[in-house]
Hints:
The chain has strands at residues 7-11, 33-39, 43-48, 60-64, 68-74, 78-83, 86-91, 98-100, 104-107, 116-122, 125-131.
Amino acid sequence: MRFDDMRTVHVKSPSFPVAAANEPITILPQKVWQVLCGDEGHWRAGIFSPKAASAAECPELEIHTCPELFVLMDGRLTLLLLKGTSVEELPLETGKPILVTCAHAGYCPDGAHTGRAFVVERDIFSTEYSDRPPMEGERAR
């Protein structure tokens, strides 16, 4: 990642909507990221359902100052993970959690919003966005 290509977003607590306790929460369709609920100063949880349908449709990566836990709920969703200087594709498996600490993005190989992951992260953090480096066999943008 080149620092001149980065932008930073700071998330401050409380960073989630008020949810009625002991009641189902409505998950909105066709939404890339929906924060569902949280515990102020500690964690928040949401649903991630990318619009992108391929790695080529993910021009940037994001990295947080905290880890994120992803669990595929349904459909297919592939994470792009920056490991060292290369980007690797990791198809998520239903019900198998992954703790992500590196720069990342995601896409649904079957089309926009066809996969959904449950995500847990801190309630207070910063996110840096940067241009995604080319993947193997891909021309530089």
